[in-house]
Amino acid sequence: MSRHDNNRYRDRSPVTLWAPDAGHPDAIGLRSIGFWLYMMSDAMIFAALFAAHGVYTHAYGTSDITASQVIDPVEGLLPTLFLFTSVLMYGLASVALKNDDRAGVVRWMGASLGLGVLFLLVEVWEFAGLVGEGAVPQASAFLSDFWTIVWVHGGHVFVGLIWMAAMLIQISREGFTETVVGRFINLRIFWFFQAVIWVCVYTYVYLMGAS
Amino acid sequence: MFVDLQGPWNWFWGRLPLLLQLHYNNPVIGFAFVLAVGGGLVVVAALTYFKLWGWLWREWLTTVDHKKIGVMYIIVGLVMLFRGFFDALMIRTQQAAAVGPDSPGILGATHGYLTPYHMDQVFTAHGTIMILLAVTPMLVGFMNLIMPIQIGARDMAYPFLNAVGLWMTIVAVGLVMASLFIGDFSHAGWVGLTPLTQLAHSPSVGVDYWIWVIQISSIGTTVGAVNLIATILKMRAPGMTLMRMPIFTWTTLGTNIIGLTSFPVLTIALLLLTLDRYVGTHFFTADGGGNFMMYTNLFWIWGHPEVYFVVLPAFGFLSEIVPTFSEKPLFNHNAMIVATMAIAGVSWAVWLHHFFIMGQGPVVNTFFSIATMLVGIPTGVKVFNWAFTMIKGRVRLETPMLWALGSILLLIGGGATGMMLAIPAINYVSHNSVFVVAHFHNMFLIIAFALFGAVSFWWPKVFGFHLDEKLGKIFFWLFWSGSVFVFVPMYALGFLGMTRRLDYIAHPGWWPLLLLEVFGIGLYVASIFAFLLQIVVSIRDRKKNAVVTSDAWQTSRNLEWATHCPPPFYNFAATPVVHSIDEWAWRREHGLTSLKPDHYADIHMPKNTMVPIVLAFFTGVFGFAAVWRVWWLAGFALLGVIGTLIFRMFQKDIDYIVPASEVERIETAYLEKMDDRAHASIHQTGEHGSPATQH
Amino acid sequence: MAHDEHNPLTHPEVRSASSAMYIAAFVLGIVAMGIACLVTVGFDLSQSDTLTWITVLAVIAGLGQLFLLFKLDLSKTMIWHTVSLVLTVPLFFMAVGLTIWMFHYLALRTMVGG
Ligand code: HEM
Ligand SMILES: [Cu+2]
What we know:
Oligomer: heterotrimer
Number of strands of chain B: 2
CATH superfamily of the domain at 1-240 in chain B: Cytochrome c oxidase-like, subunit I domain
Bound molecules: protoporphyrin IX containing FE, copper (II) ion
Largest interface: A-B, 57 and 66 residues
Shape of chain A: elongated
Number of helices of chain A: 6
Helix content of chain A: over 70%
Strand content of chain A: under 5%
Structural class of chain A: mainly alpha
């Protein structure tokens, strides 16, 4: 017999068989755990890319372009700064949310959006330079890998920016309903995560590539 | 930016002009076309004749009800099981017909009736379809259908996403069927052997179809995994602690943890391959520093966890069926939980056993060999627990139990051969032989048996009447004998050294065994007819076989039996409170089986929506355009997807309230109907008619 | 909709926002990455020393961000977030580590690949 079946309820009637009304469900918490789970899955996207990167670090084939020629860690600090500041701005937006300050949320989120755009622009500029040097993804396995990792991350940032723009419109139109707040929290998870992933990309691709 | 293609391409039609170069004169494909289109037309005609389109749209296509979504998943899976089976039939007959240099050939083939390129597509489609579009949807269907009720939930955590997952699967099915007639399918095996999948060696669109089919179905699986895990974590009824959760719910959790974390790796493996094929990168090429073993590695990082992804829910089915038909609680619930999670964990550290022969040497091989064998411990625990459940139980050999027993027996055989393959020294001689093929079919048959067990076990729950026992048993025995006749000779052929994926067999000495396999596949064909007949007969006799209480088997144990058959759309009129492992058995033993709650309350439900279908439409267009490299169309489709998502973001009218009075009306009507049936059946003590202590 | 009478701003995941912690995460991230960059280009360390240093710094920055930004802990609100992360991280490192390990041996023994 199962351990829990100790007839505890036999003498105490009536047993509660059906729960009374559950009250207000935690819709925000429910959404956030789901989105967090999705982020775990997304993290494994990068795990696969890093696994491949570990093998392609010196896979130049017949190309004579080496990692240290195309990767400049100091240059990489600029997008790092933009992205981390953008994340900070989103953080401040969520402090404004806590204080029920709609104008503040819109302002900080706008700043976050702008810095995200700057991040992408710097990346585009950096890679446009690579094309000029002939360091295109078709040149060698290493370059295929380098471009792919950086741009899978960049693609995430791009999606985040579209989401943020839509979010800005929604907040200014609808205010802080439960749905909007839940979505705001999910975007916060997504956006903060891009910073964590960028730490890995910067260290593992930029710094290790240059060392 | 894009690669140069062999053959035509223009910006408007993409690669579609290739179709003009193909000759559609193959009767085999013609037959498939007639079958698929004919079948489709019959369905469309029937829907129109009976004026069912509105009903289909309202009740099914736009639904967000987890039970209906589950049923649709299972139907899609069964249809694809049939498609995959047809491929199997072709493989078996081709191999039996193409033995030895003297064997004749027809339809353009030198031997047998399939040309090598065609045969290669057939076995590739067979593997891809069976694993990803037949077994997986059926399993996900059951998880959808049963798990939320087992934990006493009203619905899944995200009903809308649930529908999206289903529709992504349907898009993938649509694409794979399209590939049959529009262009071709991959010929590189379900694993996508590199560098064969590179554009230089596979210049046609087949590999691209294969890529996008898998990518799109993976979206569905990932979305589903998020949903199922969140449901388990957050939606349990009061009292349903983690350790009281039914084992099927636990296996759902374990499986989806695997799915959530391993599918992204497949996504990346295929993304990198896509880049190689579309923009000319060098990930898996032989030149440019590429490394095609990297593909194999990434594929199996997903691939091995995937096989446990499909087997764990099957173990869950067995853990529900065996106790019900042994009339005893499952032996050692906690050990079962630990074993489930242990299997899920170990499944992540064994993938290299699929390429022991790659050349990484004894140190690495030993690690993965030992890790692989470790999985035998928790699996053994499970087998013993089922056995101990049956010992001293009152074992009833009804159809679901037969399937369960067959499944456990197969597990012993398949597990043992897996252990053999896990020894590198043995693997070096058996790798790529049909011994491996027999091993994994043996393993997948466990799943198939458990699935058919689940179909017969939960059928009365979902439809309110039992399946015909007699035909069910015939179906079982035909399927069982088919399995024996196909796969025992296959093991033997593996030992004899026959390699896999042959379109021509040079060794005439293997012919008798191959013919035996054809006999086996004939039994399978018969079993399909038995299955179809069983369903038709059961529907005809549904009045006679109607269930009389919510507990269709009288001895079932979990909460899904604590609601009506079929369950109302809100699952439970009032959320049950859980007091024990096997709550329903606990209630039965304490005479608390009344389904009439002490109060009725308003119920909050999500509204139907057509957004998932619209998303599916755009995704399907995107997939097709990507295969044929019609970039403007792919771009529009992508914009369509983004636009639809943003539309959904701004949609407000997405839920409604069912008033308490309405709930009470539905419940009362149902309870009265059941009362009548119970009274009627006291007189005719039918098989399932024993009176219940219902009220 | 009935449930919007409930004020969503009282939700613990909204309440957990804190400027101090976000600023701390920002500073930690920038400083760690700055030092790591300096270690790589500014000092003449051996490759393995460099790797050790930048790995340590990345771990500090990453963990710092995880805790300061996401507020992961064992509270009722966040427990499942924490558990799922703790379960995913080993898989992450297993996938990367075991791959590099096997390809290292493969390269040694077959001279295939970089
Ligand atoms: C749980 C259910 C299982 C399923 C669904 C399954 C499925 C498969 C599949 C699909 C393949 C070959 C794929 C291919 O090359 O096309 C395979 C190969 C293999 N399986 Fe299993 N398997 C299962 C359990 C096991 C177990 C328990 C073991 C060992 C303890 C095992 C050991 C192996 C090995 C070593 C190979 C590689 C053989 C080779 O290619 O040389 N499998 N299995
Ligand atoms: Cu395996």
